[in-house]
Structures are given as structure tokens and as C-alpha cells.
Specification:
The protein is mainly alpha-helical. It has one domain (2-159). Helix 1 (2-27) crosses helix 4, helix 2 (31-51) runs antiparallel to helix 6 and helix 4 (78-90) packs antiparallel against helix 5. The protein has helices at residues 2-27, 31-51, 66-75, 78-90, 93-116, 118-159.
């Protein structure tokens, strides 16, 4: 499942890094709109992490949880899609593009490693460590979400 989730996330991110702006243009969605939407979704996830109300993904009939919701939208959601579109657009020359692609690959390898060895990690940090990491991740994710919303709103105002 770790391999499937990381592969789905990598595929979605790769698709949007190559032709994300064209997809957004076709759908008549601006990058600021996607930034605000992604920020709101991230904020909802962060609030679940902070309050401890996050539920385990349940596998429904004919749905692989490694694909949905883990691979997409949790790992490759609107926040990651906006980030990769902007990173690719702002990368200068071959060196900049190589840096972006190296970061994309490294991030997905790290995601796979963490998911692959998650049971071992949980045994090492125990339940208290899991709660601590979850709350810390929720706090940092909420700050990132608010910043993304603010950046999207700022870009809306500048475009007007």
C-alpha cells in the first residue's frame, strides 16, 4: 500500500508539474483560487490532527485506500499541486528545473520510506510520540494552510 500511495501521489504531482497550468486554464481555475481551496482543505485536515478527530480511512467496496484518499487527495492534494505548479513556473533554467524535479523525487521517496516503515516508527516512538507528532504536524499544517489562503487572497486582490 505504501508503494501504491507514493506512486499515485508521484503520478499526480508529475502530471501537474508538466501540464498543471494548462489543466487549470482549461478548467478556468486560477492559481489563486486553487491556493485558497487548497489552503481551506489543508486547514480542515490540520484541525482534525490538532483535535485528534482524524479517522482512519475506511476501505469501501472496490476502493483501494492507497489510491483514494491516501494517494490523492491526502498526499497529492491541492496544496501540493499549487506548490509544484508554482515551483516549476519559477524555476530558472536547467539547474532550477533539476532542483524542482530532484525535490519532487526526494519527497516521494521519503513519503514511501515513512509509510513503508510506519509500524516500526510507531513501535519506537510509542503512543505518546504519535500524539505529539500528530499535534505538531497539525499546528505546522494549519500555519501553512493559513499562509496559503492569505497568499491566494493577496494574489486575487493584486489581479483585480
Amino acid at each position: 500500500m505504501a508503494w501504491q500511495a507514493a506512486t499515485v501521489a508521484f503520478s499526480v504531482i508529475t502530471l501537474f508539474s508538466i501540464c498543471g497550468q494548462q489543466i487549470l486554464d482549461y478548467l478556468h481555475v486560477s492559481v489563486p483560487a486553487l491556493m485558497v481551496a487548497g489552503g481551506l482543505l489543508l486547514l480542515l485536515i490540520a484541525l482534525d490532527l490538532l483535535t485528534g478527530k482524524s479517522e482512519e480511512p475506511t476501505q469501501t467496496k472496490d476502493v483501494n485506500v492507497a489510491l483514494v484518499p491516501l494517494g490523492m487527495p491526502l498526499l497529492a492534494g491541492p496544496g501540493a499541486i499549487v506548490s509544484v505548479i508554482l515551483a516549476v513556473q519559477h524555476a530558472d533554467g536547467f539547474g532550477g528545473q533539476l532542483s524542482v524535479w530532484s525535490a519532487i523525487v526526494a519527497m516521494h521517496v521519503a513519503l514511501w520510506l515513512v509509510m513503508r516503515y510506519s509500524l516500526l516508527i510507531i513501535r519506537v516512538i510509542k503512543d505518546g510520540g504519535v500524539v505529539l507528532v500528530t499535534r505538531l504536524a497539525g499546528m505546522m499544517l494549519s500555519a501553512s494552510a493559513v499562509q496559503q489562503i492569505a497568499n491566494g487572497i493577496t494574489q486575487f486582490i493584486q489581479a483585480a
